[in-house]
Design a protein that fits this description.
alpha/beta; 8-stranded mixed β-sheet; 3-stranded antiparallel β-sheet; 11 strands
Length: 330
Amino acid sequence: MEIYPFVDPLTKKALTRKEKSEGKFLEGHVLFPIHEHYVDLVLPRNLSGELLSTQQHCDERASVYDDFLPLTFATHGIDELSERMSFISELSLTGSETVLEVGCGTGRDSSLIADMLVDDGSLHVLDLSPQMLEKTYQKLSEKKVKFTICAANAAHLPYPDNYFDAIYSFGGLGEFPDPIKFFQELERVSKVGARVVLGDESLPPWLRGSYFGNVLCETNKQFLAEIPWAAIPVCVRGFSLRYVINNCFYLISFFMGAGEPEADFDIPIPGIRGGTYRTRFEGKLEGVSADTKELVLRACQAKGVSIYELTNQVLREGVGKILSVSERPD
């Protein structure tokens, strides 16, 4: 197992390998155990509340997960393999990428991603559930691709900055208790231009309250979860959304940019108001009386200029005179 890409999930500093009488560890701000098939990098070290419940629930389901999950696709008359491949295809992999899968479960998607990578590529998978990871290991151990497996919290990713070319997560996002922190971590570990594909249960508005939707929600309330719009960072580019698996799940894809989008806010806007996007946003004043506004409009029509041009000129000249007078000695 290649362990050196890992960093301390809290400090983001490099980890040091340690061997003690009780086993092998990666040393950071605490000792992280290296198990036979995965590294335990979960934070906090003592789980509680929602995170602990999620881990326990997934551990309990791991042995039967692969038996029951196909029912999700069969219920809607959809071929699971072709549907999953359509999700993964949105990563636009060429084979040499460094790929991260968050919330890999038992590795049903991990196995498909691994088949798309070649010698230069590598796959890094994580999940909160050790039992799920054991199932993933069984699948990936049969592949030729380089891979790492770790137990980790999606809000504390144990990877270096600007490391991944592509990131994938399907079916786990609704279980993450802190989606804002998760997206912040995605931004941190992604290279600029990295492709990201994420999805989970969430009925679209037109199906909520329908018989179809009510039947599904009776068994799984997660279908009422909302897409985490508020958590998506401003750096995303090329964003797209589509509903999949009979419109019961969402799939969003985008690539990571750097900072906010750019636009030319200084192009003059034609018309009586004039100005630019920037001046209309940054140059707001307190307003004038209706009579004064009428006079301004008449003056603009007489001079053949916009409100922006006239008011900017008159205000600068008027204020300039006031300041000039105020600066004169008594």
